[in-house]
């Protein structure tokens, strides 16, 4: 029967480039690694590595077996991590990227809950509003609101958020309430510079309509857009997770035009066959519990407001 320690010795020897370097990384004697590798070859009935005094090279059988060996080790790591997750004993590093605005508003308490449940995890969080590639950006997982059309990734849905048209009462008093989606083109718009500037709406039984508003401000941060709207600089189309408190306080007013904007889905994305998948799943499950279903930012009641002018 093939032993896992032989697979480890083979994979590490290929990665390190020599048996002596593999032994050093594994903390074993060179003779132990060499014997484990030889036992694996005897079990498989073939030579995996061609040994010379100057270098090691993979045989054709080694080339064939290498991706399977790596998959075996990933699955063993996954199984170990999943059992650890069930007992609450997950540990080790976990590096996460998230958008700045969402992270500032919602991740502090959620991370506290997660780390209380898994105190042995060494969590790193970096906030960044630019696009972060979850497959090659150096992170274990990336929080993202928006579509994830990448076959290299697993995308776990964490929460939903409506997008709402909002403005301050002072702006609407000065400029009036738009009565139709088309009337938005005559208003000052606060636009997110990292997305298309089009606003898309739909109504029951109808397709999508596209509005191209006139920009008063373009910015790549949702919190700045929210604050600019509160200051009366224009109308913004923002996810409810940015504006729920302002709506409750009455500093922003939702503009109801009888149409619905595209929603904002929040995903946790990570590469397929990731070695830290058990930790990532535990992190996602913890976030979902913290946000609730529906999420708490969708349960806030707007402040009473006057009828449109």
From TrEMBL:
Record flagged with keyword Transcription regulation: yes
Keywords: DNA-binding, Transcription, Transcription regulation
CDD domains noted in UniProt: PBP2_CrgA_like
InterPro entries: LysR-type_TF_proteobact-type, LysR_HTH_N, LysR_subst-bd, WH-like_DNA-bd_sf, WH_DNA-bd_sf
Name of one Pfam family that matches: LysR_substrate
PROSITE patterns (alphabetical): HTH_LYSR
Domain HTH lysR-type per the UniProt entry, residue ranges: 2-59
Gene3D superfamilies per record: 3.40.190.290, Winged helix-like DNA-binding domain superfamily/Winged helix DNA-binding domain (1.10.10.10)
Protein family: Belongs to the LysR transcriptional regulatory family.
Entries under PANTHER family matching the protein: HTH-TYPE TRANSCRIPTIONAL REGULATOR (PTHR30537), TRANSCRIPTIONAL REGULATOR-RELATED (PTHR30537:SF81)
Protein name: LysR family transcriptional regulator
